[in-house]
Amino acid sequence: VSLSGHLFDQFLINEALDIIEAAGGSFHMANCQVGQSTNAMSYLELEVGADDSAVLDDILDSLTSLANPTSGHGIIREKTDMVSLKIGRIQENDIEKRYNMRKKSMILILGAGRVCQPAAELLASIGSISSGEWLNSCMETEFQENNYVEVIVASLYLKDAEEIIEGIPNATAVQLDVMDYRSLCKYVSQVEVVISLLPPSCHSTIADACIKLKRHLITASYVDDSMSKLDEAAKSAGIAIIGEMGLDPGIDHMMAMKMINQAHVRGGRIKSFTSYCGGIPSPAAANNPLAYKFSWNPAGAIRSGRNPATYRYNGEILHVDGENLYDSAISLRIPDLPAFALECLPNRDSLIYGDLYGIGHEAATIFRGTLRYEGMISA
């Protein structure tokens, strides 16, 4: 199945993949060419599969209707947003050929905390397929099909890294003090991507090594001034340094931008933006005085409760000093989950995200909040 047109800015690709998944089908992205300007069209080829021929026929009919301006989707599309169909069989020898053409990628994870193990497991599993899974692998992403990943987990204490990689294929544990710049560069030079799970104070040193050796860097931490200043150097080196790629900040940004972009595409404006996020344990596990479990640096978690906060509410800019942050907590209840007794703290400077999200000029309220169970603040 080939699709061409303004696939991304009109969310046509999202609708097409939703149709396939909702019907119980599967897909493999065989070719994708993204338009490089507002007026340029994008092109996508999908190999669509289903266990039942009737299901496959329904999927193809729905995809064809998606391109029809009178299909009832509520959006009139240009004639360039057409869906053309190509149906063929995937031969097993083609699948084996693709499998054998895979290339190795290497990723360095710095830090062996609680979030390291699931990251290492996921990355090391990419490309680790058996012959019986060839067909399924062809329905995965292009990266998974053509690559397999080796992971290096580095920690100040070798024992911690060894515990992380236990039972994980394609993973190696090493001892590394990132303040030893020569040793840091030694391991950074061996990989394509570095993921830093270390405290923010370490990131500028790591970023400097990545820029020097032209290796990409990903962190889950907020982008501070020291990292922002490296923007031009990273661009000159031809690498990406991507911060705020965790839950909060990270996934919340992606969800926010998806909703904001959808509203703007439909000609809407954002009058108020409020985002709540928090890595809280399940109620059964919230069994200590804090009703909280540390999945990251405990000292960092405590210090976050002393960060000053700024936000806009009904057009008025409000500022909370770090020493008064806990006192500013407000009770929050979720209508569909009344048993959850939560408290909300303003989360750092919300106003900078108004500009980054493209809503600073239109939203009277811009607020990002951190959620905790009721009682943690007073504890």
UniProtKB/TrEMBL annotation:
Residues 1-67 form the LOR/SDH bifunctional enzyme conserved domain. Transmembrane segments: none annotated. GO terms for cellular component: cytoplasm. GO terms for biological process: lysine biosynthetic process via aminoadipic acid. Keywords: NAD, NADP, Oxidoreductase. It holds the Pfam family Sacchrp_dh_C. Residues 246-376 form the Saccharopine dehydrogenase-like C-terminal domain. GO terms for molecular function: saccharopine dehydrogenase activity. This is Lysine-ketoglutarate reductase/saccharopine dehydrogenase. It comes from Escallonia rubra.
